[in-house]
Amino acid sequence: MSTHFNDLPWRTAAEAAMQTAHQRSSMARHIILDWIACSAGWFTTETIVQQLVYQQGSVSRPSVYRTVDWLRAAGWLVRLHGQHVDRTYVRSLPGFQPLICTNCGGIQAIAAVDLGSVLAPQLDCVGFRLRSQCLEIYGVCRDCQQHRE
Ligand SMILES: [Zn+2]
What we know:
Oligomer: single chain
Shape: globular
Bound molecules: zinc ion
Helix content: 40-55%
Order of helices and strands: EHHHHEEEEHEH
C-alpha cells in the first residue's frame, strides 16, 4: 500500500496535531505550514528562512526553526542524510516511511518498517545494541517510470 501525499490533508492533519499538543497557534505558524504543504519534494530550513524571513518578512527565523523542529520530532517531517540532500526535510506522516523519487522529487509514503525487529537476530549475534536507526528510500516513482518508456 502506498499513499500519495496531498498537500491539504498533510496541512490539516499537522495543524490539528499541533493544536492537540497545545502548540501555540499563530499567524507565523500558519504561514510556515502553508509553505511546507506547498513545497514540492525536499527542502531545507534555510530555504524557508530565505523566502519567508528575508524576502517576505512575514515570520521570524526562530519561528521557522521552532516549527520545523516540532514537526520533525512529531514525525510530520523527516530529515534526510543522503549525499545530495543532507540537512533537507520531506513531509511525512507519523508512522510512515517516505519514498523519495530521485527524478521529480515527489514524495510517497508506505507504513514505516521496524528495522530493529528485522535486524535483531543479526545484531544479537554480534552483541550490538541498537540505539537508533535511519532508513531513507530513494527510487523512481510510477509516473516518472511511465514517462521514460
Ligand atoms: Zn517521480
